[in-house]
Design brief:
5-stranded mixed beta sheet, 17 helices, 17 strands, globular
Length: 476
């Protein structure tokens, strides 16, 4: 769901390459549809021919062969002849290599974090006027007006348009266990403790064994919902022009101590520090743990997985807000949005803009979600029906969720997803990721885990975090 940051590398080489290649594109910024004839003059290509070169991380087919079909479907639906480069792995590395060598793409699908890096390097074309003048993109029913704040620069410019709706993270609870034990949804850190303790001690799975845990995580992954209780936000914040990492401040100490209490009493999964997300998810799906911290989309995926296994299952996952902080605010984490951007050396920027608009209409959304007609789905009497291959592909060809309220999911949303997304929209926000966050994160993880397992007093762990972060010039 969340991509690692693309590091800023070879900036001078990138800018120099783009400056040279940009000189070869037509000066008015329009599509370059002219071909030179033998006498050095030029002749216009047929007006009906539109070309688009795209590099994408998740948009396209599930295999190279299906990506070829995806390109054909774009051409069938739009008349645009698309050429999609979709690396099977190491997307950020291959993207950097391609851009650094001056390769020309009309559209890139990248994270907001990468977009910020590319803006700083002068790689991207500002498209503010295009967005504001677009009947599609300026329609608040297509993209809510408040969402644009996520991608605007400090001076109000827009360089990227959302490629999909990006959700957020939260505590996800076994609602059927709450109901079975007669417990209400917890709202304070102490209430969360009481619920998790009950999940540990009161045999919520009914097998007569003490083999359940209250909470599991994948290390520090998505504990923001609990840090909310202290009014502490993940990653960086700027205070009076200074870089601060709230997880490394005294305010976070009570939450680390709360985790240490869970761990000491056996309420916390003892392997949480070394879990990957797959192990955490498996514990939740196999009735071993009553709460995890994960993405809103997985509320539906959890429910659907158990329903597919047993249509009569009592299993019910539910996304819930974390505890409110001292000021009454609930602070959840929003995932960095993926965006479409247009490089300054794009040869067909106008076609790129046309495609971006189309991507947010029903045909574009259906392609990005269900996939290719005849391959992933068929349409009979106006109704969609997934093929066996389409079921395997999970209705996700780059757009599992979208903004456009006018386009309803053909099969509805998976159970619990809509409610979880509403929680995200109400309480979640983006965190600030500054350069060298990856280095800072290693320090935070090291001492936070030691505090959460009781290996080190939380106050000492935070003091050591601060010391190392300052010595490494990662905070001010």
């Amino acid at each position: 769901m969340k991509k690692k940051a693309l590091q800023t590398v070879a900036a001078s080489m990138v800018i120099a390459s783009l400056a040279l290649t940009a000189c070869g594109s037509n000066g008015n910024g329009g599509d370059s549809n002219q071909a030179s004839n033998g006498n050095g003059t030029s002749q216009q290509k047929e007006a009906s021919v539109k070309e688009l070169r795209i590099m994408a991380g998740v948009v396209g087919g599930k295999t190279p062969e299906e990506t070829d079909l995806f390109e054909q479907e774009i051409e069938r639906l739009t008349g645009i002849k698309a050429d999609i480069t979709k690396p099977a792995s190491d997307y950020n590395t291959k993207l950097t290599t391609a851009i650094s060598s001056g390769e020309k793409y009309d559209l890139l699908q990248i994270s907001k974090e990468t977009m910020n890096t590319f803006i700083d390097q002068g790689i991207l074309t500002p498209i503010t006027d295009f967005v504001e003048g677009s009947d599609v993109l300026s329609d608040s029913s297509v993209i809510p007006s408040g969402e644009w704040a996520q991608v605007k620069t400090e001076d109000g410019q827009i360089y990227g348009v959302f490629s999909k709706f990006q959700g957020g993270t939260m505590p996800i609870v076994r609602q059927d266990w709450l109901d079975k034990l007669g417990l209400d949804t917890p709202e304070t850190l102490d209430e969360f403790y009481q619920v998790l303790k009950a999940f540990k001690e009161q045999d919520p799975d009914g097998n007569g064994k003490e083999d359940t845990y209250g909470l599991s995580t994948a290390g520090l992954y998505e504990i923001q919902g609990f840090m909310s209780a202290a009014g502490v936000k993940q990653r960086y914040v700027m205070e009076d022009g200074k870089r601060v990492i709230p997880y490394a401040t005294e305010a976070a100490i009570p939450v680390y101590e709360w985790f240490a209490k869970l761990y000491k009493e056996g309420i916390m999964d003892p392997n949480f520090a070394t879990n990957d997300t797959g192990k955490m998810r498996n514990l939740f799906l196999t009735d071993r743990v009553g709460m995890v911290t994960y993405w809103d989309a997985w509320v539906g995926l959890f429910n659907n997985a158990r329903l597919q296994e047993d249509p009569d299952t009592a299993f019910q996952a539910k996304g819930i807000p974390g505890p409110a902080g001292p000021g009454g605010e609930i602070m959840l984490r929003r995932g960095d949005p993926d965006v479409w951007v247009i490089p300054v050396n794009a040869e067909h920027p106008e076609t790129a803009m046309e495609f971006i608009e189309w991507w947010h209409t029903e045909p574009g959304i259906i392609l990005g979600s269900l996939g290719i007609e005849g391959e992933d789905y068929v349409k009979k009497d106006g109704q969609y029906e997934l093929t066996e291959l389409g079921k395997e592909h999970g209705m996700d060809h780059g757009v599992p969720f979208w903004y456009n309220d006018n386009v309803k999911p053909p099969f509805g949303k998976l159970p619990g997803v809509e409610e979880a997304q509403q929680i995200v929209m109400e309480h979640a926000s983006l965190e600030l990721t500054l350069p060298n966050w990856t280095d800072a994160e290693k320090i935070i993880n090291n001492y936070a885990i030691r505090a959460m397992t009781g290996e080190m007093p939380a106050a000492e762990a935070v003091a050591k975090m601060q010391d190392e972060l300052k010595r490494a010039d990662l905070i001010d």
